[in-house]
Amino acid sequence: GVKGAVAAGMQAIGYIGASHAPYTGEDYKDRLMDAGADVVIDDHLSLMDVLR
Predict the structure, then answer these.
(1) Which of 5, 19, 26, 31 could covalently link to 10 via disulfide, CB atoms 3.0 to 4.6 Å apart?
(2) Torsions phi, psi of 15, nearest 5?
């Protein structure tokens, strides 16, 4: 998803608050940022701050 958004010239917001996120490894945030995410959030409340 992040790489697709970057390729399309869109803002990429990574989300690591899903129930499966702990099983993706402690470096999940870093991997999303390395893939081109503009920001990584861990709860939906943070999304409103990012979109402002």
Answers:
(1) 5
(2) -125, 120
Q: Tokens in use for 52?
A: 């402002």
36: domain range?
2-51
**Distance in angstroms (rounded) separating the CA atoms of residues 52 and 49:** 5
Residue given tokens 């990012």 in the structure block: 50
Number of domains in the chain: 1
Could you read off the pLDDT tens digit of each residue along the chain, which spans 52 residues?
Answer: 999 999 999 999 999 988 887 777 789 999 999 999 999 999 989 999 999 8
The DSSP symbol for 46 reads H
The residue written with tokens 């999940």 in the block is 28
